[in-house]
Design brief:
Blueprint lengths: L16 E6 L2 E7 L12 E3 L6 H7 L12 E4 L5 H9 L3 E5 L2 H12 L4 E5 L16 E6 L6 H7 L4 E12 H4 L5 H12 L3 E8 L7 E8 L1
Parallel strand pairs: 4-5, 4-7, 5-6, 7-8
Antiparallel strand pairs: 1-2, 2-3, 8-10, 9-10
Helix pairs in contact: 4-6
The structure holds S-adenosylmethionine.
């Protein structure tokens, strides 16, 4: 008997992330004050996947498992480009950034976002913010672009709920500029598997050179 044709499931966007048209172009968008000069219609603002690895992961229809309203821990928040979009659709959003200069802009992004909590902390020492971040967060988003990206994810696993998701962007050149990205990604995946089950990976090449997007859950 012929098997029924398998229809691939399209991953859905989280509630609070929609497609809107800006300047005649269909774009991902969240509802909030603009942060980085992105187009806005006064209510919705475009989410630029070329400026955001998570935006790229959503454009590539990776199955993030995020439905909207989740508690989020964001590692490597920089000046708030991506984490501001996360705070637009998520619940309480803790944003860790260790560099003072971008953190100042992050504070500005947080002004109109009561659910966004900037933390001037080093993501390699989670014990320094464990008293602030609630345990059992639903999603960790990580984009630190420094050496030891898998280790950072493993160190912060303690905050993640058992059924939570890690959405990780790995920059190959931050680990080792001399190695082939594919070899770097293989090592990161192996190290990550100490504490996570990897559900999906996708090269973000269309938007970010030599980056891998990873969706994982705690083991
Ligand atoms: N995620 C940002 C966005 O999409 O808007 C861009 C992040 S940028 C690629 C990486 C950021 O991670 C930098 O601002 C850097 O200072 C920060 N970072 C790197 N290592 C870190 C660490 N150990 N703790 C906290 N922040 C870190």
């Amino acid at each position: 008997m012929p098997r029924p044709t398998e229809v691939p499931t399209m991953s859905e966007l989280p509630a609070g992330v929609e497609r809107h048209t800006f300047d005649g172009t269909d774009r991902l968008a969240t509802r909030g004050e603009p942060v980085y000069g992105e187009p806005t219609d006064g209510e919705w603002r475009a989410w630029n996947p070329n400026r955001s690895k998570l935006g790229a992961m959503l454009e590539l229809e990776m199955d993030t498992g995020v439905t909207g309203g989740e508690t989020a821990l964001y590692l490597g928040a920089a000046s708030g480009t991506t984490v501001s979009h996360v705070a637009d659709f998520a619940g309480p959003t803790y944003a860790v950034e260790f560099a003072a200069r971008p953190a100042r802009d992050l504070l500005d992004a947080a002004e109109s976002r009561p659910r966004l909590f900037p933390l001037l902390k080093d993501a390699r020492t989670p014990e320094t913010y464990a008293h602030v971040v609630e345990s059992d967060v639903d999603v960790i988003v990580q984009d630190v672009a420094t050496r030891g990206q898998a280790r950072v994810a493993l160190e912060n696993r303690r905050f993640l709920a058992d059924d939570g998701r890690l959405l990780l962007a790995v920059k190959a050149r931050s680990e080792d500029v001399t190695r082939e990205p594919a070899a770097v990604f293989a090592d990161v995946r192996e190290e990550l598997s100490e504490g996570y089950e990897i559900l999906e990976t996708e090269r973000l090449e269309a938007y970010h050179a030599d980056h891998l997007g990873i969706v994982a859950r705690p083991r």
